[in-house]
Amino acid sequence: MTFLSVEQPDGLVSSTPGIAVDFLRDWRQAAARLSAGHRTAFQHGYWLGAWYEAFGDAAPLIAVISDVATGRDIALVPMISHVRRGIRIVEFADLGVCDNNAPILALDAARDPAAVDAIGKALVEALRALPDRFDLLRLKKMPAQVGGKPNPLVSLGRTGSCSVNGNLVLIGDDYEAYQASIRRMQMPRCWRVFSRLGNARFEIATDAERAREFLDVMDMQQEERMRQLGSPFVLNDDVHARFYREVARQGVAEGYAVISALVCDKGIAATTFGVRHGATYLLLRISHTGRTWANFSPGLLATERTMEALHAQGVRRFDLSIGNQDYKRRLGAVQVPLTDATVALSWRGAPFAWRDHAAQGLRRHPRLAALAARAMGKVAR
Known about the structure:
Elements (H helix, E strand, L loop, with lengths): L1 E5 L1 E6 L5 E6 L2 H4 L14 H10 L4 E9 L5 E12 L2 E6 L11 E2 L7 H17 L6 E7 L2 E2 L2 E2 L14 E6 L4 H7 L5 H9 L5 E4 L3 H22 L8 H14 L5 E8 L2 E11 L2 E9 L9 H15 L4 E3 L6 H5 L3 E4 L1 E6 L5 H13 L3 H15 L1
Parallel strand pairs: 1-3, 6-8, 15-16
Antiparallel strand pairs: 1-2, 3-4, 4-5, 5-6, 5-7, 8-18, 9-10, 11-16, 11-17, 12-13, 13-14, 14-15
Helix pairs in contact: 2-7, 5-8, 6-7
């Protein structure tokens, strides 16, 4: 049976056999659970701790799923709840800063399809039984696996239904062979041009103070770039700036937060920000000086130098973030599908779930999706 508790027991819910779901409202209390579990870089303690602290307006809702027979925790799902247009929504702790979202899984997480599916079912039933009377569960950007284990929440949606995807570069032990495979990008020439600048060098921040300096420059460069494009930029507002700097403060010394830059006497030409978990690195932000030093593609050069440095440290999987810009293809990235899942938790949430399902279905038919987009555009005008 599923036991349900929210700080205090709410009672016993007849539900998925053998699985208990406990909801916590404080990340610090939840962080001690499954500390050694499988996770992606976005479920790291440094990331989630900084996230729940920075985005304090969101109401934490962390599901701890356990095995009734043994009492062992088998999964932890970091989520939030909020109200939008009168609809009570539960979703991952993301708000647009994560490239993917997933539960933390026990080291001995199940692989059996029935046992895996039961976890997602238990979560939905427990959410429906909460006194909060939530209307909608939205789980976005889920990878198929977490640490080589099946992601149990993917079964709640249609595989590959997300509108965005990862961009993965797999590099073997020979980095020179990889460099040869991208020779058309002329990275050696770009490095030679950059090296002609006074005291030119590539640098990865090793302490929080230097990381903050790079992040300050990154914010300015990205804001200027977005202004040129006529696009809004929010990553340097008080909340986002505090979040990224806290991730850097906690994680830079041990190599979880990777903040790098191309530096010379005239200033900082480009920066990158990413996170590393095991042999995987995820590139999240790039900035550069725009037209000033465009003759050596500073953003791309900073990215490639970062990949080379991390490869020497044992990284072999490089995820270049969501968004399918052409440079990622030229760096050898292969698109990795992600999954969205929307589940109605009440009758009020049903229309929103139907709308999400329709949009996910359209993504499987690009021509039909284009026609629908044009029709919606005409209606809006």
